[in-house]
Design goal:
Number of strands: 6
Number of domains: 2
Low-confidence stretches: none
Structural class: alpha+beta
Shape: globular
Oligomer: single chain
Bound molecules: iron/sulfur cluster
């Protein structure tokens, strides 16, 4: 078993890394992975890579924004190059980005990266909400498994909860999170949340690590396009049943 050198990933802004032994995952999660993608049980480990803070956007920008999905493409390229440099020829299966649904926030909880914020974006001390999951792999590696981070949620000691008051849709007003209210507001003409989450911007935790404006715009404009596409498909399926 060898310790992982994540220096090349850190340099690319892919500065959150966690390694899990598949056999040490919960039976439910390991069973799901085996059933969905690894019936032959070829892979010993699950590797989760994320980004935190502004570094990734700068690295993606420097590499050239030449594809429709430059963040995903850059992240996959860096991670596969990093893996190949240390484990040439190792069996690997990419879970994310990919076609099989995967509970990234659940993996983030296992790594200790994720606490729930009121608006359901993950939050952790230091980085605040300015982190994300970029790549998840199954690999037949023998890296030293990571110890999960053990931190308290910043929300537990946040008494004035400015994020809740800032949400123009009142999506958190009743103590839960009203996804429909959020999406409905985001899609309105003149919405203040078309290319950002106003609540997220108001959270003081990790404010110094906030993504550059262009990164925030890129992420939220993309998610709004995805929402519009999903709703369009749902409408088409609905009318096809009439
Ligand atoms: S403003 Fe407070 S409650 Fe809201 S996400 Fe930030 S820390 Fe949590
Ligand atoms: S995107 Fe806008 S509407 Fe949705 S939770 Fe954030 S602030 Fe509220």
């Amino acid at each position: 078993m060898s310790g992982a050198d994540f220096g090349a990933l850190d340099a690319a802004g892919l500065n959150l890394q966690a390694v899990f032994d598949v056999d040490a995952l919960s039976p439910a999660l390991a069973g799901r992975l085996h059933a969905q993608v690894d019936p032959a049980r070829r892979f010993r480990q699950l590797i989760l890579i994320g980004n935190a803070g502004p570094a990734l956007w700068h690295a993606v920008h420097a590499a050239g924004m030449t594809t429709p999905d430059p963040i995903d493409d850059f992240s996959v390229r860096c991670v596969m190059r990093w893996l190949a440099a240390r484990w040439a020829g190792v069996a690997v299966h990419r879970l994310y980005p990919g076609d099989v649904p995967i509970d990234l926030q659940g993996l983030g909880r296992l790594a200790g990266w994720h606490h729930d914020s009121p608006f359901k974006v993950g939050i952790q001390p230091g980085w605040g909400t300015w982190f994300a999951y970029r790549v998840a792999l199954l690999a037949d590696t023998a890296l030293a498994p990571s110890a999960p981070l053990t931190t308290a949620s910043p929300c537990a000691s946040c008494t004035d909860t400015p994020c809740i008051a800032a949400c123009p849709a009142g999506a958190m007003a009743d103590g839960g999170f009203a996804l429909d209210a959020c999406i409905g507001y985001r899609q309105r003409a003149g919405s203040r949340c078309a290319t950002r989450c106003v609540a997220r911007m108001r959270c003081p935790e990790g404010a110094a690590q906030r993504y550059p404006d262009a990164h925030i715009h890129h992420v939220y404009a993309h998610s709004l396009r995805m929402i519009a596409r999903y709703r369009e498909r749902a409408r088409a399926a609905e009318s096809g049943r009439d």
